[in-house]
Amino acid sequence: MVKAIVGANWGDEGKGKITDMLASQSDVVIRFQGGANAGHTIINDYGRFALHTLPSGVFYPHITNVIGNGVALDIGKLAAELEEVTSQGVPAPKLIVSDRAQLLMPYHILQDTYEEARLGGRAFGSTKSGIAPFYSDKYAKTGIQVCDLFAEDILRERVAAAVELKNVLFQHLYHQPKVSADEIIARLLELRERIRPYVGDTVAFVHRALAEGKTILLEGQLGSMKDPDLGIFPMTTSSHTLAGYGCVGASVPPTAIEDVICVTKAYSSCVGSSTEPFVSEVTGSAGDELRRRGGDKGEFGATTGRPRRVGWFDTVATKYGCMVQGATQVALTCLDVLGYLDEIPVCTGYEIDGAVTDIFPTTPALLRGRPVFEMLSGWKCDVRGCTDYNALPENARAYVDFLEARIGVPITMVSTGPKREEMARRTPKL
Ligand code: GDP
């Protein structure tokens, strides 16, 4: 059976921790979309890791980790990450890289960087990892698959064709130097040797694993708000962040996904451009304090180190985010972060053009949205590390009950700290 662990919001909800935790009872963990543009922070017995490309199952020797065909594969970054993990004492993980995954090329990173510079004040706040040009090329059918690395004639032809197009852009739109197909091919052939031992037919592997009754975890990157179809377009990423895309990016049959665990934080955070609508945002000193106290080391990007925008919990966005994921249960993380507050605002509606709605709108309306807050009582104590849900202060439990009733999906796990064991199981009231 397949379980998906995905984000209900803007990403950084703590999916890495939940995947790391649930991986212990799974056989396979698959990354099915995105690339090295976002990171999961995982803290376990080996130390603290920021994984960007490797699936979060790499810390367990019994797990096969799969980089699915839907991923944007930057081989250099994958090789570096493997080295980083093993150099900190983690045994060499079992890993299969899909032969159908496509390669994130050096010219994707250049194009992303040049385009953000060209846009200036209208930039998307990209991490400049090349993700948007990568997926554009995939759908324009000029991408390069991993299997092409092992068919040199095809590789040469396809890289030459792609470079021809890129150089027109680089020279005439961006006024930048041309790239050389020969240099790119030479580098790719070098990198090919670093992934050769891992390349395989992950489609056959996944279907065999399912036939054998194995448990597969799909590990999502970012969250619902960043989906290019159902998120806040165009302030989205370029691959689908929804569990449903696992059917394509990890090649699991739609009927095999039995459980969709949506992860959401007890407050909100959002990375990207400052022009992105973020209705429940907290700014000023209250925002600085929440940012400083958030996550395990403050709310700063795992990939970029940039400060994340922070906000109060948004039931409108989260209810929608869970709905489009098809959530069967919710893991609420970072409850411990809110222990300093006397009162906790929760955004339960958007006022748009004088009317209040709890239905998540399209971008133009969202840009005009103003938050409607309800105030809940704080619990004014440190609940970090609490593993017994019933031992949490009454107000903390009331806060969780309130969120559950508003988002309409059972909250089954409440995380009280960044470490693997800092987790309270909850019997849902829904
Ligand atoms: P992901 O991309 O969804 O995996 O999220 P990130 O790893 O980018 O961000 C989540 C951050 O919150 C990380 O720094 C985690 O270590 C941290 N974290 C996860 N769960 C908890 C929790 O319950 N409490 C606290 N304080 N931090 C947490």
Question: Can you give a write-up of this model?
Answer:
The protein is 32% helix and 22% strand. It has 12 helices and 20 strands. The strands form 5 sheets. A 10-stranded mixed beta sheet has the order 9-7-5-2-10-1-11-15-19-20, with helices on both faces. The protein starts with a strand and ends in a 5-residue tail after the last strand. The protein binds guanosine-5'-diphosphate. The site of guanosine-5'-diphosphate has 24 residues, from α1 and β3.
Strand order of the largest sheet: 9-7-5-2-10-1-11-15-19-20
What can be said about the biggest beta sheet?
A: 10 strands, mixed
Ranges where pLDDT stays below 50 over 5 or more residues in a row are none
Principal-axes geometry comes out as globular
Number of strands: 20
Distance between the termini: 24 Å
The percentage helix is 25-40%
- Counting DSSP H or I runs of 4 or more residues, the number of helices is 12
Q: How large, in whole angstroms, is the Cα Rg?
A: 22 Å
Ligand species:
guanosine-5'-diphosphate
Mean pLDDT: 95
Structural class: alpha/beta
Assess the beta-strand content as a share of residues.
Answer: 15-25%
